[in-house]
Amino acid sequence: MSEKVDIFDTTLRDGEQVPGCKLNTDEKIVIARQLEKLGVDVIEAGFPVSSPGDFQSVVDIAKAVSEPIICGLSRAVENDIIVAGEALKHAKRGRIHTGLATSEVHRVHKLRMSKEQVLEKTAMCVKTAKKFVEDVEFYAEDAGRTDNEYLAQVCEVAVANGATVLNIPDTTGYCLPHQYGEKIKYLLENVKGIHKAKLSTHCHDDLGLSTANAIYGVINGARQIECTMNGIGESAGNTSLEEAVMIIKSQQELGVHTNINTKLLTETSKLVSEMMNFPVQANKAIIGDNAFAHSSGIHQDGVIKHRENYEIINPADVGNNISAIVLTARSGRAAVAYKAKLIGVELTKDDLNKVYDLFIEVADKQKEVLEDDLKKILKQAL
Ligand code: KIV
Ligand code: ZN
Predict the structure, then answer these.
(1) Which long-range contacts (CB under 8 A, 24 or more apart) does 102-107 make?
(2) Is the CB of 34 under 6 A from ligand 1?
(3) Would the pTM count as exceeding 0.85?
(4) 271 alpha carbon to ligand 1 midpoint, in Å?
(5) Is residue 80 in contact with ligand 1, taking CB distance under 6 Å?
(6) What ligand has the least distance to the C-alpha of 228?
(7) Mean pLDDT throughout 133-159?
(8) Nearest CA to ligand 1 atom 2
(9) Ligand (nearest to CA of 72)
(10) If you take atom 8 of ligand 1, which residue's CA is the nearest one?
């Protein structure tokens, strides 16, 4: 039986921390409604204590969206948690996400706390959050660089005080996939009471491993992925929602599924990119403009004969209906004949030879041969 992996979207919190990506409340509501349509399980709507605007956004999103759990971030600071609880009052299902750093480097050089003090703060923040909501997610910031034995102690305290989800962030994107996977496995095997909580991945992309790490987390028992549309997020970004979801959908051997309506991935990506004024690179997996484009003759010939020769995902499954064959100087006869047919011209072998010679002349002079260029070539050659 396939097990469900929850999708925790933090585009509006971790994603919105990115310089230049700030949204106003109305824009956040538009994105939150789209995320609800997409089928995410949790929307992290903001960090209520950080500003009156962010507080109001969490309140308004909680009122506007009813299906997903609405989550608000807080530090392990009593007032943060009280303010988060207040903002989440209107949520049908609210979750407080609270915690603090656990790695030696953060503990010594940022928090300036002993291990014991971190354990005390862990108990305090979870206990305080429980006064406002039943659903409390604890994060161990920089868990990626935290020694597993100590991390297990912290998690045990969080669970003993009622945490329902344990977030294991690789805040600095440091872990290798097998190390992150082993961390999740270690916690599942060594934290007393772990069956009462769900383990969550939250992986940053500093070494380009955020999605791989999240998937290794799932392989080793995590059942929630924290991610953002287009992989937007603090520093090098976060696990990309579209990548994690499509890996899970494409690789059935993982034995897990999500509730995401993948046909809405492309439109959701475009909405987030436009609203946050944050362009998506053309070669970005799943939703980049070139993700399903083929320009070399070998690939084009293969795709025209049988799409699956070169495509592991049907573009329609992610809501991408754009033609995949791009004519360039690397294109072969099969692609030229295919594109000519699409504009209503069936070419015989002799005609194709004539058209192709002229096509290559034109293609060598420009980056791409567009439909209008092809029409002119056909007219001139035939
Ligand atoms: O990356 C991180 O550690 C975070 C936490 C605040 C959850 O975003
Ligand atoms: Zn983060």
Answers:
(1) 102/140, 102/141, 102/142, 102/143, 102/146, 102/150, 102/151, 102/154, 103/141, 103/142, 103/143, 103/144, 103/145, 103/146, 104/145, 104/146, 104/147, 105/142, 105/145, 106/141, 106/142
(2) no
(3) yes
(4) 24
(5) no
(6) 2
(7) 98
(8) 171
(9) 1
(10) 14
Q: Give the whole-angstrom CA distance, residue 32 versus residue 34.
A: 5
Could you report the per-residue pLDDT of 2-37, keeping only the tens digit for each? Answer: 999 999 999 999 999 999 999 999 999 999 999 999
Determine the straight-line distance between the first and last CA of the chain, rounded to whole angstroms. 60
pLDDT in tens, 268-315: 999 999 999 999 999 999 999 999 999 999 999 999 999 999 999 999
For residue 204, report the distance from its CA to the centre of ligand 2, in Å: 6
Which residue owns the Cα nearest ligand 1 atom 5? 141
Gap between the Cα atoms of 11 and 13, Å rounded: 6
Average model confidence (pLDDT) for the chain? 97
Q: Which pair of structure tokens corresponds to residue 181?
A: 């996977």
* pLDDT above 70: residue 51: yes
Determine the Cα–Cα distance for residues 51 and 286; give it in Å rounded to an integer: 34
The CA 243 to ligand 2 mean position distance, Å, reads 17
**pLDDT at 323 (0 to 100):** 64
Beta-carbon neighbours within 5 Å of ion ligand 2: 14
Q: Among residues of the chain, what percentage have pLDDT more than 90?
A: 98
d(C-alpha 152, C-alpha 359), whole Å: 64
